[in-house]
Structure formats: structure tokens, C-alpha cells
Amino acid sequence: MKQWEVVIGIETHAQLATRSKIFSGSSIAFGAQPNVQANAVDIALPGVLPVLNKGAVECAIRFGLAVDGQIAPKSVFARKNYFYPDLPKGYQISQYELPVVLGGQVTIQMGQGDRLTEKTIKLTRAHLEEDAGKSLHEDFHGKTGIDLNRAGTPLLEIVTEPDMRSSTEAVAYARALHALVRWIGICDGNMQEGSFRCDANVSVRPLGQKELGTRREIKNLNSFRFMQQAIDYEVQWQIATIEDGGRIEQATVLFDPDSGETRAMRSKEDAHDYRYFPDPDLLPLIIDREWVELTRANMPELPLAKRDRFVSDYALSSYDAAALTASLDIADYFEAAIAFAGKASAKPCANWVTVDLAARLNKEGKEIGESPVSAQQLGGLVGRIVDNTISNNIAKKVFDVLWDGEYGSADEIIDKQGLRQITDSGAIESLIDSVLAANAAMVAEFRSGKEKAFNALVGQAMKATKGKANPQQVNELLRQKLGQE
Hints:
Helix content: 25-40%
Number of strands: 17
Mean pLDDT: 90
Subunit structure: Heterotrimer of A, B and C subunits.
Number of helices: 15
Family: Belongs to the GatB/GatE family. GatB subfamily.
Enzyme class: ligase
Protein name: Aspartyl/glutamyl-tRNA(Asn/Gln) amidotransferase subunit B
GO biological process, one term: translation
């Protein structure tokens, strides 16, 4: 049976985090009543002229720096001509031959633990453009309404090379890009509100063939789960079509989450269909070196650099460092906790942030910025585990109290509830003697080779100390008493 290779490229529209539109002063706030955020420029009244938003250009420069792309000293806005009811001018202002960013790359990670692998996805370009309006088909008695609030919203379209070979790689790229644009503050990444939308260009070819197959573009994928499902279905459909003797026609398709299938929307246009030409109302965009360097000076430490620093400075595994740099908020929270707990607590801090705290946040549908337990509070808690003031089990109880907001710090809870760990060897030894005397049958089972009996004896000893004994000390002293050491 013939083997097939999947080829995927992604085009992403990231809505830029400006307060106003790219060529007018209208607000881009989400959720307004239809057509209340569309001024004369947005609705293309005769005689109006576009004025470029400097903030949108700043966002593009930040992105170019973040992906190590080439920021064009001169780029040009073009008119992309097509007719659609929600496009008031009859054309979209975009960039074509001379985009603001050329090249660049995004590193993706896949797998877990020791199986973590990396791959570099090359970018073709990133260009500035305006969004169109929105057609509304509901509650209009068979008619379509037009909302022009989105018309003119600033977008950065980010285009990859066809470097991905599976839906898993495509989703890993989309997640990495989503995290990056949020990290550098150019996009809020809200996929439900349309701030981050992906189109996947999918084709297949016989394994070993260099020539690309005919691609179909899956439009407007607004969730990572839908992206994976859509690509997987499209790949299987294309392979089945070719193997049945059919031919793939270049097309734009939509994904239906209810059926799990893609369906053709229209034949795919090529660049010449849009009749691009430089927009005569806009001067070329000139970005000098000084502007680029000033922007560079205000950039945050980037995810890969921070991840590498977490590995070198805190002796964390690559997997832990990757989890902690999944977002800037998580990374900042971790470092704030470390600053309070001490550098020696890096590994337990990482575990608490990525496991215990993450699980509780996920359960309650909260982001880390909404955590009831502050970084300082968590750092204080981890510090008391590291210095053996409390055990990890007791720490979970303290964490619950902190989450509920009853006390201000772990120390306060530990003192008021009498939770300090018993570390006095003499006191623990005395309790163990009592446990052994009261559980002679378990002792006999252990001596006959049943290791489970030892765990049961540890449980009895911890119960006798109300969980306050140091578990490691209990284990060591119990083995000594039983003649194992």
C-alpha cells in the first residue's frame, strides 16, 4: 500500500492589541451593539482617507523581533480587491509584495518528559492588514445583516512555510504562536472572540515525492481541538479521494464541528484574482533602525531564553521549564514564588505551580492571574516544606486554607492550627515502639516478606502522630526497629 506524507502550512490572523482601528480612530472593544464602532473611514464614505495606527506598526516590530525575522525598512500597503457584503470599500487594505516582516521562525515542542522533542517551523512573512465586517444570518427573517464594528480592526497575518507533517505538529505550532503573541503583548489571543484565527493549508503527496500536492485551505479554525479534528479529517479525505482515482481540486473549505467533516465553500483564489496594487492613499511604511532598537529595548525576555535560563539557573528539567514558560503569567508567578521561598526550593516550587496549583485553577476555570493563592503565599508554603516545618501532605491542607482566604500566610496557618512537623527522633521513636507493640501481626507479616505490611505500619505511625511526623524519619526509624538497617 502506498504511503503518504502530509504537508501543512498555517496562516494566522492575530488581532493586534491597540485601542483603535488600523486606519481610523474607532474603538475595537468587543461586544458593542452592531455598527456603533464604525466611523466614516470604516464604512468608506466618499472623500475619507486612512491614517495608519502607529501602535499596530509597533506590534508588528515586536513580533518580528520575537521570531528573529527581518523587519523591512520599507513596506507598502496594497489593495486586495474582492466583493463581499461586509467589505464596504470593495477592497481590503493589506500588504502584498513588500510586507513588514520577512522570515523568522517558531520553535515547537512535542511529547513529554524524556520524550520531549523540538522542531523549528519557518515563517514566510507577517503583514499588517485590516479586518472585514461581519455578516449576521440569525434573527433576520431570512435576510442577512451587516455589522461593520470589526471593519478596520488591525490584524497581523502570520504565514508559515509548509513545514508541518501532522495535525499534532500543526496544533503544537498554533499553541506556540498563540502563547508568543500573548507573551509579547500584541494580541489577547481570545479565540472565542475571534482575536486569534487560523487557516490550515493541507495537502498530501506520496512519501518521498518532492513536488507538493494540491492544497485545500481550511478556514477560520478558532480552537486547537477543532484544528486537529479538521486536519485529520481532511487528510483522510484527500488520501481516500486520490486512492479511489479522484483528483484534488484547490479549494477553500470549512470545518463543521457537529459532523466532524470539512466541506468545500468555494474554489481557491490565487493572488492574481485579487488584482493587488499599491494603495494610493497610503505612503510607504518606513521603519528606521532607531525605532527597531527602541522597541527591542522594551521587549520582555522571550520564552525560549527564559526556558533555557530556568534550566541553567534553577536546575529544572527541560519539561518543567517548558511547562513554566507556557505563558508569561505562569513564568512570572513561578519566579515571584522562588524569590520568596529561596532558590533551593526551585524544584518543589515548579511542582506546586505546574501540578497542584494548575489542577485547582483548571478545576475552577481560573487563569493564574486570578489565583486566590498569591505567588508570595505559595513561596512561603513551599519554603516550609523545604525546611521540614511541615510535610507535603500537611502542605496540601495549608494550601486549601490559603485558597479559601481564611489566613494571610502559611506560617499563620501552621502556628494557629498547630501543624508543625515532629522532627524529634526520640519522640518519633517512642511512637513507633507503641505502634509495633500494638500491631504484632503486621510485624510478623513484614518479617515473612510481605512489603505491604511495612507500608501499613508507616500508615499507623503517621496516624499516631496525626500526620505531623516527618515521613522520611518515620520510614528510616521503622526500618531500623525492624532490623532492616
